[in-house]
């Protein structure tokens, strides 16, 4: 059996969700690896772009922030923020965004702002950035989370970015015409959302993880009835990730 | 310099620009994004001068915003994001100032802040958007009613309306325009005629500059008129928008400047370590801001070795193979 780390499994599991031809909005960290792995293996015609305005950079080196010079190098086009959001929102494009968060609820709403009271928080995070915008405007959002009870919560301390809002048709009723939470990739599992209720359920648990373990680390009731084990990373996926996408190990460290 | 005669009266030193345009309590828009093209040299000059009570209006400003907050220059902040990517997922002095209640702050999103500057540049009072709906950005005010009555603060954070053209329920959020007192931009090139050229991504720098009452442009190089006019499609901002020009090579260090230099990972890590502790942060400011009396002295302290390491390669615009851990 192949040896791989949690973050490598996450990058690969998320990369597999990208369809060929998708316009992929990448953030930083594992999401940029997922986008790059996807493009090199499953979705060669996918286009990676950044909220800062760089479209289809060569990504010979991994960017460390969405404003890294590496997101504006070898691109098809460089622009500003407003043009970038016109791409994310574009009605002709299927745009898929990767987002990370400190907290998530059962409808895939995200908190990247604070823990505790907004005005006097116990812990302040970076804030929305473009998160709220892409969650509002993109065709769909894939979130990255550490799978812990304190992060998978009944009620967010602050709702920064809207997923399925309060479930059912509530997102559309807000005036958000498309989009919503597509999937959540954690260090334990891949989770998706029920078609009608828009509630999160366990789709795949990673090798070595049990459905019960996922449930125990989730702070709300989670349907695990239809879950199956995820396919582990293949040798090809790991080789591309380690040798081509992140050879310096800046984001994903292979197991010791 | 005879060839700079067209902008001679606007060409000045960092200190002159700060003295002339930056005042206590002024509303300031910083150019750049996280660790790229932050106007650091002039920000250091602002800190050295001891400017107080700044009202920053920001999308995702990173390093410049964090050091201004940490140095105690900021009273009020409208912000979408305070982070430096891998070098500080949340800007440390910013996070701490919010947690300690040391600054007044209010959250928007990146696109919303960019739109607010765009509205300001177009001289329209507000602008609609389909973002923010349903989120706490729209539900929770950061500023108190007293702050809302102050100059340059919108009387409310958002408004909402249904599309007035369709007659159907189709809500949009309305954002108040921004017209900051001053915008700071760090650009790669300024022509002798005053035309500004930014290479790489422009972020919201141009909307910020056009929305502001006064604009200070710092630049890596001042180039001949014939050079800047040879390919005008590459240019970003016309001369008449700009009130002051300062030539400061490496003026964005330790943040990056496309085609000129990469971010300085060693310095950003040093900063992060300092920012985590009050007394170490004070030492950092002492050493890197107050203890150097010119930008040249600052660069000398950074050292030739590092300046060469971060030098961008013309083919790609960054420093390939730079150790970024």
Descriptive overview:
The complex is a heterodimer of chains A (256) and B (325). Chain A is an alpha/beta fold and 256 residues long. Chain A has one domain: Glutaconate Coenzyme A-transferase, CATH 3.40.1080. Chain A has seven helices and twelve strands. Chain A has helices at residues 6-15, 30-41, 81-88, 131-137, 170-173, 211-216, 235-245, and strands at residues 23-26, 47-50, 95-100, 103-104, 110-111, 114-115, 123-124, 140-145, 181-186, 189-193, 200-205, 228-229. Chain A has an eight-stranded mixed β-sheet, sandwiched between helices. In chain A, strand 1 (23-26), helix 2 (30-41) and strand 2 form a beta-alpha-beta unit. The radius of gyration of chain A is 17 Å and the shape is globular. The two termini of chain A are 15 Å apart. The mean pLDDT of chain A is 94. By secondary structure, chain B is an alpha/beta fold. Chain B has a single domain (4-309), classed as Glutaconate Coenzyme A-transferase (3-Layer(aba) Sandwich), CATH 3.40.1080.10. In chain B, 32% of the residues lie in helices and 18% in strands. In chain B, the strands form two sheets. In chain B, strands 1, 2, 3, 4, 8, 9, 10 and 11 form an eight-stranded mixed β-sheet that branches. In chain B, strand 8 (182-191) and strand 9 (196-197) form a beta hairpin. Chains A and B meet through helix 3, strand 7 and helix 4 of A and helix 4, helix 5, helix 6 and helix 8 of B.
How is the secondary structure organized here?
The complex is a heterodimer of chains A (256) and B (325).
Chain A (H helix, E strand, L loop, with lengths): L5 H10 L7 E4 L3 H12 L5 E4 L30 H8 L6 E6 L2 E2 L5 E2 L2 E2 L7 E2 L6 H7 L2 E6 L24 H4 L7 E6 L2 E5 L6 E6 L5 H6 L11 E2 L5 H11 L11
Helix pairs in contact in A: 1-2, 2-7
Chain B lengths: L13 H8 L5 E4 L9 H10 L4 E4 L5 H8 L3 E6 L12 H8 L4 E4 L2 H12 L4 E4 L6 H4 L5 H4 L10 E4 L8 E6 L5 E10 L4 E2 L7 H7 L2 E10 L1 H6 L13 E4 L17 H11 L2 H13 L4 H8 L1 H6 L16
Parallel strand pairs in B: 1-2, 1-8, 2-3, 3-4, 8-10, 10-11
Antiparallel strand pairs in B: 5-7, 6-7, 8-9
Helix pairs in contact in B: 1-2, 2-3, 3-4, 5-8, 10-11
């Amino acid at each position: 059996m192949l040896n791989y780390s949690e973050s490598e499994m996450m990058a690969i599991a998320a990369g597999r969700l990208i369809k060929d031809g998708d316009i992929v909005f990448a953030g930083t960290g594992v999401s940029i690896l997922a986008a790059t792995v996807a493009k090199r293996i499953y979705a060669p015609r996918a286009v990676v772009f950044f909220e800062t305005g760089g479209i289809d950079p060569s990504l010979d080196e991994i960017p460390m922030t969405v404003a890294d010079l590496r997101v504006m190098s070898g691109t098809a086009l460089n622009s500003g923020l407003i043009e970038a959001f016109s791409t994310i929102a574009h009605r002709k494009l299927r745009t898929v965004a990767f987002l990370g968060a400190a907290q998530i609820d059962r409808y895939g709403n995200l908190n990247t702002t604070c823990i505790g009271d907004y005005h006097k928080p116990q812990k302040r995070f970076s804030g929305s950035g473009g998160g709220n915008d892409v969650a509002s405007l993109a065709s769909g959002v894939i979130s990255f989370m550490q799978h812990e009870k304190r992060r998978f919560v009944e009620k967010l301390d602050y709702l920064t970015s809207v997923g399925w809002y309060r479930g059912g048709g509530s997102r559309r009723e807000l005036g958000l015409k498309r989009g919503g939470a597509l999937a959540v990739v954690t260090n334990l599992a891949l989770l998706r959302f029920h078609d009608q209720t828009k509630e999160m359920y366990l789709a795949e648990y990673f090798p070595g993880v049990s459905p019960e373990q996922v449930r125990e680390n989730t702070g709300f009731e989670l349907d695990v009835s239809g879950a199956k084990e995820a396919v582990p990373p293949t040798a090809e996926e790991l080789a591309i990730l380690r040798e081509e996408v992140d050879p310096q190990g800046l984001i994903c460290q292979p197991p010791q | 310099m005879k060839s700079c005669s067209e902008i001679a009266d606007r060409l000045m030193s960092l200190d002159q620009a700060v003295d002339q345009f930056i005042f206590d309590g002024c509303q300031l828009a910083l150019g750049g994004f996280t660790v790229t093209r932050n106007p650091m040299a002039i920000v250091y000059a602002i800190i050295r001068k001891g400017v107080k009570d700044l009202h920053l209006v920001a999308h995702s400003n990173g390093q410049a915003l964090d050091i201004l907050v940490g140095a105690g220059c900021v009273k009020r902040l409208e912000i979408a994001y305070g982070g430096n990517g891998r070098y500080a997922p949340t800007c440390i002095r910013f996070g701490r100032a919010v947690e300690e209640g040391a600054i007044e702050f209010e959250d928007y999103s990146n696109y919303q802040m960019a739109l607010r500057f765009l509205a300001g540049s177009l001289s329209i009072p507000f602008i609609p958007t389909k973002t923010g709906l349903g989120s706490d950005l729209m539900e929770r005010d950061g500023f108190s009613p007293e702050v809302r009555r102050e100059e340059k603060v919108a009387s409310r954070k958002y408004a909402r309306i249904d599309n007035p053209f369709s007659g159907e329920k189709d809500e949009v959020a309305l954002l108040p325009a921004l017209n900051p007192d001053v915008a700071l931009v760090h650009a790669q090139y300024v022509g002798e005629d005053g035309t500004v050229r930014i290479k790489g991504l422009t972020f919201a720098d141009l909307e910020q500059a056009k929305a502001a009452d006064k604009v200070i442009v710092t630049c890596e190089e001042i180039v001949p008129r014939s050079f800047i006019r040879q390919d005008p499609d590459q240019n970003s901002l016309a001369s008449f928008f700009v009130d002051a020009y300062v030539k400061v090579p490496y003026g964005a260090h330790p943040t990056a400047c496309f085609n000129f230099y990469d971010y300085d990972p060693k310095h950003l890590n040093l900063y992060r370590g300092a920012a985590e502790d009050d007394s170490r942060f004070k030492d950092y400011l002492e050493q890197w801001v107050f203890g150097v009396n010119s930008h040249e002295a600052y660069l000398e302290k950074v050292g030739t070795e590092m300046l060469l390491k971060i030098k961008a390669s013309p083919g790609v615009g960054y420093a390939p193979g730079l150790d970024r851990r």
